[in-house]
Design brief:
Layout (H helix, E strand, L loop, with lengths): L1 E6 L19 H4 L6 E7 L4 E5 L5 E5 L2 E7 L7 E2 L4 E7 L5 E7 L21 H4 L35 E2 L6 E2 L11 H5 L3 H16 L23 E2 L2 E2 L32 H19 L6 E3 L6 E4 L21 E7 L8 E6 L3 E4 L7 E10 L2 E2 L6 E4 L12 E5 L4 E4 L10 E8 L9 E6 L3 E4 L7 E10 L10 E4 L12 E5 L4 E4 L13 E7 L8 E6 L3 E4 L7 E10 L2 E2 L6 E4 L12 E3 L7 E4 L11 E10 L8 E6 L3 E4 L7 E10 L2 E2 L6 E4 L12 E2 L8 E4 L14 E7 L5 E7 L3 E4 L7 E10 L2 E2 L6 E4 L12 E4 L5 E4 L10 E9 L6 E6 L3 E4 L7 E10 L2 E2 L6 E4 L11 E3 L2 H6 L8 E5 L9 E7 L4 E4 L4 E4 L7 E10 L10 E4 L10 E6 L4 E5 L4 H6 L3 E7 L5 E7 L3 E4 L7 E10 L2 E5 ...
Parallel strand pairs: 5-9, 6-10
Antiparallel strand pairs: 1-2, 1-8, 2-5, 3-4, 7-8, 11-12, 13-14, 14-17, 15-16, 15-18, 18-19, 18-20, 21-22, 22-25, 23-24, 23-26, 26-27, 28-29, 29-32, 30-31, 30-33, 33-34, 33-35, 36-37, 37-40, 38-39, 38-41, 41-42, 41-43, 44-45, 45-48, 46-47, 46-49, 49-50, 49-51, 52-53, 53-56, 54-55, 54-57, 57-58, ...
Length: 1219
């Protein structure tokens, strides 16, 4: 199958002869608008081409045939070729491009095309990824679109086909190697909704999976069909253009038998086919991923030659049917950030080697290769690294002068990039100031600066620089010119005037003295533009010795001076040159205007001086006159002098003249002004005939006609006519002015008599009036009535009266009065002959509109002006919404809710007068309030029910009362109880208030709020509840605290009580451990105990008591601040018990607080040993001493017993609560 593509804007009218019965290009397609792409699809004998129409029907075209297709936008359609075939675009010498779709076997090419087509000419990469480019499509569908015109039948060999136009996004899959067998057309035209998603998934899988026949050598012949079943003609298998019945497989294999395949509509063939595609895609990807790492050779400083080998799987077994191996596309990725850095694709193609260019010298690179075949891309190869060689340095920047004198220059420079090899030296060359492009070496070394000496003053020298390393020498930098110092120039002479113009002055000056020829001299010309400005401004700076100063004012004096400068500085200014610009010629005067009346033989003209006199005084004016309007007429001077007006006389009557003016000054002759056209008057026209009435007069208009007056030799053309009308009241007015011989006069009054006369007008003026013509208009509708008069008889009725309008020739038969509250919707309320009407049942303060109309036999007259009125105001309406605010609003009220009520209402209709107050009725009293909608009624009795109503009052009076509402005040809130302190401790206060009885709890749900004063003198709540006692914890010892209490119930919060002050007590000293007793020499012992620090600044002392033998009371033996005490004179074998307590001596109250005693310790003085035990019964009995518990043990037993009892009671209470 062959596809011929043509661009219609490039196709010649005479096309070459086409092969195989192709059809010539249609003229109406060639001559289409814009650039259009026309494609001829040639269907060979034995082939079938399928097109889908817009209605979904399929059309099968059997070869031989020629199918024309056209693109309206000129884009080339993507052509999809089946597996085993290739496409190539061939353009002949006539500009016709043909896309040839042929098998890869040389025997399958048509005889008119070369067979040596490279297998690499496959589908372009951007077509392979197109979403519509489906490899496994069974049918080629072409949307037929109406072309520029119908194609005649003689343009087709066997089939009559309309031209097909494909859109910009349409893809034309082309399968010309076999016949597409279509079944179940309805299923293709209208796919089932449930199968659309499955088909989309199958289509995407086929798009991502290459055909398996590409990698199978046993399916590489021409008879392989990938998109349908094979049809044969004349008993031979059609191989897509291959002749003969034998196969075209490798090695002359026998012909492949007819392959039995299901149609596209068969669901049984889709799953194995999809599985086969996925398997082949994975197999190909594995083969492509086996590519070896590339080889690097010929490494240079900026180039490297890279080569690689194809994947191992494509070298041996996989070949085309023509015996040639498959080729891949390779992508080369380069990274200069290391082996694991970011890689960038730098090459994509089919070659097996690539030369990398534009690399950086002495840089490490890594490169890897990908293999891509038919949109399947394998994994990258192993990266290979290489480092480019070093090279000569980069070209340095030019040197810069850092210091200069009259005889030396100091230059310095920066080092360039060394390109991998360190710079060893620099080469500085100069031209020795000769400026002949000949350079000599000035310096060679490793320094970056150099001083050039023995130079001439004020002279320029050219330098250039190069860098050198171990590899080579760089190129020279840009040349730079440096100047040595010199002398300041001498004061120049003043510039000379060459020529002065209107806006320019040309000056010239001599060359500066005392300067060498090689020195660069700059001249600065300064100008002083105004006399009041004493500053000179530079106007020119350069090396030339002449200058033309432009953009100056005309006839103006300027001052110039010259300054000479060189590299060393500027000279003193020269003497001042004074010059004056020339005056300019004046501008034209204004266009002449006629002054006074124009007569038949003359007129007077006047003009104004020119706005621009050119800088000099006007000497004379010239007034030129020409007869006629033609430009060919000659101008004659009618006046010459200094005046600005002239009287033109002795002119011809009724003649057109042109006039213009100009002026003369020392600057020259001005241009002429604009021309003035003036025509002298002609003779006035004669009397006209009386006007005539055309047709029958109407009630408001009359049409008149008249004849032109007789024409004489002295009169000229009549330009207009004037019609004068005299009304019924002898009012005269001009009703028409124009060139026509008839007119229509409108806006007349019906039934009235008018008189008309006419006169003619030409350049000579108006002629006399004609005789008058009387005309009476027909009767018409009545005139517009005057606005009706409204008189209110009461608050609810009004009397409407009116006067009769003009009848205009017919008596008035009826009046119509319209009335309403809306201007847009008025209703008819009266129709009759009376001149008044009474309207009742008006609403108070309501707006009303009315209008009146008169009617006679001729029709209805216009409505009168709209009249508006407003009914008188009345007392307000009754208040409809009245209520008492709820509890939330009462809480916000500043007064007690027990003695007040918050009353709210909505404002009623005021009936035209603003409400000024309200009256609140409580039965026995009435409370007046202002114009408000909320009021607080106070000074009421608690727990009392009231019946309340309200009325509104305006300037008219009081309105009716509203309905009654009932409201009840709250009871009084409770009074606060008295606070008492029942127990005070060093860190707590137990407070009590009121009396707690069961009767009070059942009758009154009272809540108490207890507050304490903090450090900031603010009261904060510490308790809220129904209890009558509360213990305040965590207080400071011996500190006063202020409290107050408040009672709250359903009636509200009561007032706070007075402030009660209670104080905590001071803390007693703590109990200390049992003292320690130690026997000393003799009959003595030493008692020691622990130390207690001072308490809140108060000192502490200790009291030691002893219990001897069987005495019943302890005796104090020591009191003091020491923590040890010795007792002597003890008896042996006597039981002694010692205990200690701490005493706190309060400094502020001189009170002494004693703490609890410590546990006692027993002591017995013996000769042989000292026995120390706890609290025992008999010391002399060892058995008894071992059985008696000590004080610590006895205390532990008591604590354990109390804890057990507490736990038992807790379990009992929990059990009772759960029950």
């Amino acid at each position: 199958m062959y596809v011929t593509m043509m661009m219609t804007d490039q196709i010649p009218l005479e096309l070459p002869s086409l092969m195989n019965g192709e059809v010539a290009m249609m003229p109406h397609l060639v001559n289409g608008d814009g650039t259009q792409q026309v494609i001829f699809v040639q269907v060979n004998p034995g082939e079938t081409f399928t097109i889908r129409g817009e209605d979904g029907t399929l059309q099968c075209i059997q070869g031989p045939a020629e199918v024309p297709m056209m693109s309206p936008n000129g884009s080339i359609p993507p052509i999809h070729v089946p597996p085993g075939y290739i496409s190539q675009v061939i353009e002949d010498n006539t500009g016709v491009r043909r896309v040839v779709v042929t098998p890869q076997s040389p025997e399958c090419y048509p005889p008119s095309y070369p067979s040596a087509i490279s297998p690499t000419h496959h589908l372009p990469p951007y077509l392979a990824h197109h979403p519509h480019f489906i490899h496994n499509s069974h049918t080629a569908f072409y949307p037929p679109v109406t072309g520029p015109g119908d194609i005649p039948p003689q343009f087709f060999t066997q089939h009559h086909l309309p031209p097909t136009i494909y859109g910009e996004q349409e893809i034309i899959p082309l399968y010309g190697m076999s016949t597409s067998y279509i079944t179940r057309e309805d299923q293709y035209n209208k796919p089932h909704p449930k199968k659309i998603k499955d088909r989309q998934i199958d289509r995407q899988n086929r798009l991502n999976s290459p055909p398996s026949s590409i990698y199978k050598s046993h399916l590489g012949n021409c008879t392989t069909v990938y998109n349908g079943t094979i049809k044969t003609h004349n008993g031979a298998a059609n191989g897509g253009g291959c002749g003969g019945g034998g196969g075209v497989g490798g090695g002359g294999a026998p012909a492949v038998k007819k392959v039995e395949r299901r149609a596209r509509s068969s669901p049984k063939s889709s799953e194995p086919e999809l599985h086969e595609c996925d398997t082949e895609t994975k197999r190909v990807q594995d083969i492509l991923s086996g590519i070896e790492k590339p080889q690097v050779s010929n490494i240079q400083a900026r180039t490297v030659l890279l080569s690689w080998s194809p994947p191992a799987g494509l070298l041996n077994g996989d070949r085309h049917s023509n015996g040639l191996p498959y080729t891949c596309t390779y992508e080369v990725a380069l990274s200069d950030k290391g082996r694991d850095g970011k890689y960038k694709i730098i090459y994509s193609g089919e070659e097996l080697e690539y030369k990398l260019k534009d690399l950086r010298p002495a840089t490490e690179y890594h490169v890897r290769v990908y293999a891509v075949y038919n949109s399947v891309k394998g994994s990258c190869s192993e990266p290979v690294g290489f480092t480019t060689h070093s090279c000569a340095p980069e070209c340095p920047f030019p040197p810069k002068p850092s210091h200069r004198t009259k005889n030396s220059l100091t230059l310095q420079w920066k080092g360039p990039i060394d390109n991998g090899s360190k710079i060893t030296s620099y080469l500085l060359e100069w031209d020795e100031g000769k400026r002949n492009n000949g350079f000599r070496e000035c310096y060679f070394g490793s320094q970056k600066h150099y001083k050039v000496t023995k130079l001439c003053p004020a002279m320029g020298y050219t330098f250039r620089l190069a860098a050198q390393n171990d590899v080579g020498t760089s190129g020279f930098s840009q040349e730079v010119v440096c100047y040595t110092s010199g002398n300041i120039p001498q004061t120049p002479s003043a510039p000379r005037l060459v020529r002065a113009g209107v806006t320019w002055i040309t000056l010239q000056w001599n060359k500066a003295e005392g300067c060498t020829p090689e020195e660069v001299i700059t001249y600065i010309l300064e100008i002083q533009e105004e006399d009041n400005d004493s500053v000179f401004h530079p106007k020119y700076t350069g090396e030339d010795r002449t200058c033309t100063v432009k953009n100056l004012k005309r006839s103006t004096q300027y001052k110039f001076r010259l300054i000479v400068s060189n590299v060393e500085g500027k000279s003193s200014p020269s003497d001042v040159l004074v010059c004056t610009t020339s005056p300019d010629r004046p501008g034209p005067p204004t266009r002449p205007v006629v002054r006074g009346p124009i007569t038949s033989h003359g007129f007077s003209v006047q003009w104004d001086p020119p706005e621009d006199n050119g800088g000099s005084e006007i000497l004379n004016y010239l007034l030129e006159i020409s007869e006629g309007n033609s430009e060919a007429n000659q101008w004659e001077v009618a006046y010459r002098g200094s005046a600005t007006e002239c009287m033109c006389t002795y002119l011809k009557p009724g003649t057109l003249y042109k006039l213009r003016a100009c002026c003369i000054s020392t600057g020259g002759h001005s241009q002429c002004s604009e021309s003035l056209l003036v025509r002298t008057l002609s003779v006035a026209p004669g009397q006209c005939q009386p006007p005539r009435v055309l047709g029958k007069p109407k009630h408001k208009e009359v049409q008149l006609q008249w004849d032109a007056p007789p024409v004489s030799e002295t009169s000229c053309h009549i330009s207009a006519y004037s019609v004068e009308m005299t009304g019924p009241e002898e009012a005269v007015s001009e009703v028409y002015h124009g060139p026509d011989l008839e007119c229509t006069i409108t806006n007349l009054l019906p039934g009235r008599t008018y008189r008309f006369r006419v006169k003619a007008l030409n350049d000579g003026g108006y002629g006399p009036y004609s005789e008058a013509t009387e005309v009476t208009t027909a009767a018409g509708p009545p005139g517009q009535c005057q606005a009706p008069c409204l008189t209110f008889l009461s608050n609810t009725s009004v009397l409407v009266s009116w006067e009769s309008p003009e009848s205009f020739g017919a008596d008035i038969s009826e009046y119509r009065l319209e009335w309403g509250e809306d201007e847009e919707s008025l209703e008819l309320v009266y129709s009759g002959t009376s001149n008044s009407f009474e309207i009742g049942q008006l609403l108070a303060s309501a707006h009303y509109f009315c209008r009146l109309q008169a009617i006679n036999q001729a029709g209805a007259g216009p409505y009168s002006d709209l009249v508006t009125c407003r009914a008188p105001a009345s007392v307000p309406d009754a208040v409809t919404v009245l209520y008492v605010s709820d509890d939330e609003h009462l809480d916000a009220c500043p007064l007690s809710p027990s003695v007040c009520l918050v009353l709210n209402w909505e404002e009623p209709c005021n009936n035209g007068s603003e409400i000024i107050s309200y009256n609140i009725d409580l039965g026995d009293i009435t409370i007046p309030v202002g114009n408000i909608t909320s009021y607080v009624i106070d000074d009421l009795l608690p727990e009392t029910t009231f019946r309340i109503r309200i009325q509104a009052v305006n300037e008219i009076g009081a309105g009716p009362f509203s309905h009654f509402i009932k409201a009840k005040t709250r009871p009084l809130p409770p009074l606060p109880p008295r606070l008492e302190c029942t127990a005070a401790g060093p860190q707590s206060l137990k407070l009590k208030w009121g009396e707690s009885t069961s009767k009070q709890h059942t009758t009154d749900d009272m809540v108490y709020i207890l507050q304490i004063e903090d450090r900031n003198k603010r009261f904060i709540p510490i308790y809220r509840g129904p209890s009558h006692t509360y213990k305040v914890q965590r207080l400071m010892e011996f500190t006063c605290y202020a409290f107050r209490i408040q009672a709250v119930n359903d009636a509200g919060e009561g007032p706070f009580s007075e402030v009660f002050t209670f104080s905590t007590t001071k803390s007693i000293p703590p109990a200390i451990k049992a003292p320690r007793v130690r026997q000393t020499e003799g009959n003595a012992c030493e008692i020691a105990w622990e130390t207690v620090p001072p308490m809140k600044g108060d000192p502490v002392s200790y009291v030691l008591q002893v219990l001897v033998a069987r005495e019943s009371e302890y005796k104090q033996v020591y009191k003091g601040e020491e923590t040890t005490f010795q007792i002597s004179g003890l008896q042996t074998n006597t039981d002694y018990r010692f205990r200690v307590c701490v005493c706190r001596r309060c400094l502020d109250t001189s009170q002494e607080l004693s703490g609890p005693f410590s546990p006692s310790v027993a002591f017995m003085l013996q000769r042989s040993e000292l026995l120390l035990t706890g609290e025992t019964g008999r010391i002399d009995d060892p058995k008894t001493k071992s059985l008696m518990p000590s004080d610590e043990q006895f205390a532990a037993l008591l604590v354990l017993g109390f804890a057990s009892v507490s736990i038992l009671f807790a379990f009992i209470l929990q059990y009772l609560l759960m029950k």
